[in-house]
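Subject: sequence -> structure tokens, single chain

Hey, anyone have a minute? Need the predicted structure for the following. Not urgent.
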Amino acid sequence: MVIKDKNIKLTYSNIILLNILMIALFLRIWGIWNVSTTDEYNEVIEALRVCSGHFNFERWMKRFYLYILSIEYSIYYVIGWVFNVFHNPMDFAAKIVRNMEPLFIIGRATSAIAGACTVGVLYKIGETFYNKKVAVVSSVLLAFTLFHIDLSQQAKVDAILGLLVVSAFYFILRILEIHIANKWDYLWCGLLTALAIQTKINSIVLFVPLCLTFCFGFKNKQIILRYIFVFFIPAFIAGFVIGNPPVLFAPIKFIKGALGLGSVYSTAVNVVPNDLIGFFAYPLYYCRNMGIVVSIFTVFAIIYAILNLNKRRAVLISFIACFYILMGASKNLVADYYMIPAMPFIYLLFGDFMSETSDKLSSTIPLFRGKSMIMLILIMLFGLIEPAINVAKHEISLTGKNTRYIAKTWIEKNIPAGSKILMDSGKSINSFAPPIAENKKSLERILLHARENVSKGKIVHAMVDNNALIYYELLLKTAPEKSYDITSTMFGLDVNPINYYISNQYQYLIISKDMKNSRTNEFFAKRNPEIAGFYKSLNTDKRIKLVKTIFPTPMNGGDTFYIYEVMR
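Reply:
Had a minute. Here:
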């Protein structure tokens, strides 16, 4: 069926795609005003650094997303300046360090759009290289993948990463189909591959299916080699420059920095090693997110693809297998969202298997004859029950304020300004604790420590350098009346026995349940008994009193926060 109205042309395929995209975008845009997660501050502040004209030569990767944000923040400033909200750049900076929520929402909206676009590109891959059934199945599965939704609601690089990887793969598959490939496919493939790798180094796995694709087409080696050297390689180099222009000013330092990035997989910062190595954890994460029905069919799909191997399946499997080996070998970087680059290709195998199986059943079993699409829809509806329930719970949890902000309101109402507080927080930025303000005494201490680190050449998290000190200086100049003398536990890694806090006149302890649990588990406690001892003593020491617990609810997501008063 084709609907024509002047220059508008809609087919059933386009209508289906439009509906899937609308659902995907709604699930990702809903609740971004109530999201709160660690690492967002890192990305937003780095983007502000770019806006100020200061490039960070200590942090070479994960930059492309920051340049997108920096452009958006510049537009936000100009609009605010036009309407007299901001008088000049320093006025903007002074106001924004005290309320970064507008910047977070801009970043989250960008991620949400990127996440929805990833669903659309996956549909396009399925439709172009398989059929409409594969397009619908794979894109719907990605649309309802909980951790993809979650990461698409955060001002972080992961949603952009997923879009870049899938987009690069679209052109890899075009190159694989040698009869439709042209020079522009090589150019776009090189550009997008470079941007993906520059966004996160684990995307370097794209070279495996890429090389395999070149090998499959080697009978046309003269054309392939010409396109590689004339279009792919120059575009690849251009992608790195676009993704991080300072590469042009310090190429040797960039190469050394990139070569050293592999260490994060064995010595990740502030991360407690997972109880399970990634090889075992990732299948469990997949099952937990997508449910038992989808998980069982996924196993069948992978086995089917291996037993019925063709060029397209070999290229998909090569990426999935190598990515799994790279990420699965770690205990330090293990989380469901690390699977994002591989998920679309697993879903393509899933859709391919479901499409071919339903067609075979339809042609061989009289009861199912001519009903392959009905069978596919019923199986998908049944399989999506569990993922849809998981997604619904997540979306409902974003209808109310995050517990960080609920805790902030309670603290400011019940704890006197100026109180001396030990709080589970980060090394340089409070990214996961209740966002209460540090007072001048606390900020002077933080600024002094940061200046000492800079003078010694110690760059914290490859971020806190001389140019970054203005952040703390602006906080010091704008410290509000309702503020506190806060000491951070530095991700729960720098704590002392309770006696220390009593003798040094601390009045309150604000503790994260997630931090407390991670610092007292058996694996961590064996290696860090002093730290574990502090957190365990919170349950037994009579000199501290639990005065308030802030719990998450079905409508309020976030961590549980324990607020203790130090008794004297």
